[in-house]
Write a structure and sequence with these properties.
Layout (H helix, E strand, L loop, with lengths): L1 H7 L9 E4 L26 E2 L9 H13 L1 E4 L2 H7 L4 E5 L13 E6 L1 H14 L13 E7 L8 H5 L14 H15 L2 H6 L11 H14 L4 H4 L3 H5 L1 H8 L9 E5 L4 E4 L2 E4 L7 H11 L28 H4 L10 E4 L13 E4 H4 L2
Parallel strand pairs: 1-2, 1-5, 5-6, 6-7, 7-11, 10-11
Antiparallel strand pairs: 3-4, 8-9
Length: 363
Amino acid sequence: EEDDERRGVVLDGSPPPIVLVHGIFGFGKGRLGGMSYFAGAEKKDDRVLVPDLGSLTSIHDRARELFYYLKGGQVDYGVEHSQVYGHTRFGRIYETGHYPVWDEQNPVHFVGHSAGAQVVRVLHQMLAEKAFPGHDTSEDWVLSLTSLSGALNGTTRTYYDGMLAEDGRSMKSICLLQLCRLGVIVYDWLDIPWLKNYYNFGFDHFEMSWRKVGFSGLVDLLLGNTGPFSSGDWILPDLTIQGSLKINSTLKTFPNTFYFSYATKRTRKLFGITVPSSVLGVHPMLFLRVLQMCMWRHPQNAPLPYKGYRDEDWEDNDGALNTISMTHPRIPIEHPNRFVVDDSDCNPLQPGIWLVPCYQVLL
């Protein structure tokens, strides 16, 4: 793993690197026996970097990890955040950053898939606010941000999987996410080195290992008294519409950064009803997920996630995310955007505005 890190360092004077940021349950270079999350993109050029961030950790924690992955040093999750959510302040140490010269004169291109797009946006805001002690950061450290089916405004998928639509942070007592929670807790508690090197959910800073908490600690974790699922410092609450609204309310679109967004869908209109676009060539499970999201209706007894919410706006989807969420940041306020019909409409490229190719939206 250390050899992989040394080979991944981008040297000073090279063209700006492209940093690919994975989504939920994703993984970086070196995990799952060398499998590539981004179809081998990192093998084509040394300037393509694929960080391994926590696959289920919160957007905030991932953003902090991403900074130190590039710049180097020990991951600092922040004093206040760590105290509020009950985990250690410091995490993994990167002896050598993968792009240690990163600054305004040496910016980077970010490409975020799914939840990875929000991770980059949160990191960008942290850079603008100089939120990393000892580093004089700014928003101009990011040359471009490309969102691939990005979870920019949340997804109704989270409610089907078990998040409560009433608040967007709590879980139902019986649901798929509860099974996931139990599995992750046992996995991290067992703390089997070779297994965690193969795949890691990213909760080491919560110190859930049997070596740290013993059997009584496992009981507390399973009962929901401690840990990330108790405090809410994990990815799913950040991917609800309510959670995304809270995050978006703190984020800006910056004037010197180029923004591109590619949205997808597997739905179409049939007699005025939104349905999956095709059965042919689609795995039955994906077809069912698309159909399920087409039929989502916000509970009548629950407060609307934001003013002006309409179920029909959220019907188009790709089985994991709603298309309306992928195009550009919309809630609580809509960020500058332009839907591009022809590539020539992008010339000259304009920073500070989300460019959304329409031919991608209509896939």
